[in-house]
Amino acid sequence: MGHVPQPDGLKSAAFASLSRLMETGRTWVKLSAPYLRSKTGAPGYADVGVVAATLIGRYPQQMLWGSDWPHPTLAANQKPDDAALLDVLLQWAPDDITRQLILRENPVKLYGF
Q1: Which of 6, 26, 85, 105 could make a disulfide contact with 47, Cβ separation 3.0–4.6 Å?
Q2: Does the global pTM surpass 0.85?
């Protein structure tokens, strides 16, 4: 998700740079590992969720889902619940059409499945 720092989020230089890249139409964002930058943490990762929901709202056809399983950057006792992470995506992308893009149509287009 561009590793947009928190708590600056949408006001950060990283988000501005990511937005400029997205506007070219040649950049894709993998929605995964919200725990990497979140300061608010699980279960909702509300701070990172604002960034994700904004990206999804602006560029739904350039978003992909990634579980980041098996979460290689985390210690064994810190691994998140993957089902709970998918539930977070349902909050970020509340409508079925957008979810279909993120979970199916966009990967098909990007990877040529």
Answers
A1: 6
A2: yes
Asked whether residue 1 is domain-assigned, the answer is no
Domain CATH code at residue 37 = 3.20.20.140
Q: How many domains does the chain have?
A: 1
Letter for the amino acid at 113? F
Exposure string for 43-82, b = 16+ CB within 10 A, e = fewer: eebebbbbbbebbbeebbebbbbeebeebeeeeeeeebee
Chain segment 38-58, per-residue pLDDT in tens: 999 999 999 999 999 999 999
Domain membership flag for residue 59: yes
Q: What angle do CA 89, 95, 97 make, to 5 degrees?
A: 105
Place of tokens 């990877």: 111
Residue 18 sits at φ, ψ, to 5 deg, of: -60, -40
For the annotated catalytic residues, the residue numbers are: 68
Supply the mean pLDDT for the chain. 95
Q: Which residue segment(s) compose the domain that 107 sits in? A: 9-111
